[in-house]
Amino acid sequence: MGGDKKTIARLLDMPEDKVKIDRYAYDKKFPDEIKAWKHIGRKDPDLRAYKGRLYYPATALMLLIDLAAELLVTNRFIGLGALPGLVATDTRFRKPVMPENELLIQVKLLRNYKGKIGIFSGVIADREGDVVAENIFKGALIKV
User: Fold this and answer.
1) What is the rounded CA–CA span in Å between residue 23 and residue 123?
2) Could you list the residue range(s) of the whole structural domain that residue 23 is in?
3) Phi, psi of 106 (to 5 degrees)
4) Total number of domains constituting the chain
5) In CATH, what number is assigned to the domain containing residue 121?
6) Span 55-113, pLDDT tens digits
7) Which of 88, 43, 38, 84 is nearest to 62 (CA)?
8) Model pTM?
């Protein structure tokens, strides 16, 4: 299962212009992981400038991981609703992200405490396979 921005917007019940991920893939054979892709174009609204050079900020990278985690929860726990609160516990940024990069976002559900709290791992890699950011985070798995 997978989809594009329209599918993501429908699944997460949000406007299509707020969806930052281009597409995603979810396989029921591996229910605890999801992959998503994002192309950083030169006109991406999240790009920032520093000393005349454009870069994709760390806060925007974490939003990509959060969005992928919501997609995972929506696909994994049908009818649960959104993932209301994510708390990062260990975040590392390894490499800057520049325009014209293609990012692969992978999120895994590492642990599920009695269906109420989930511990997730998120990794973002660029086209060459280099890790640009990684995150361990917790989220409440409750129906909203």
Assistant:
1) 16
2) 2-140
3) -120, 125
4) 1
5) 3.10.129.10
6) 989 888 888 888 888 888 888 777 665 555 667 678 888 988 888 889 999 999 888 77
7) 88
8) 0.86
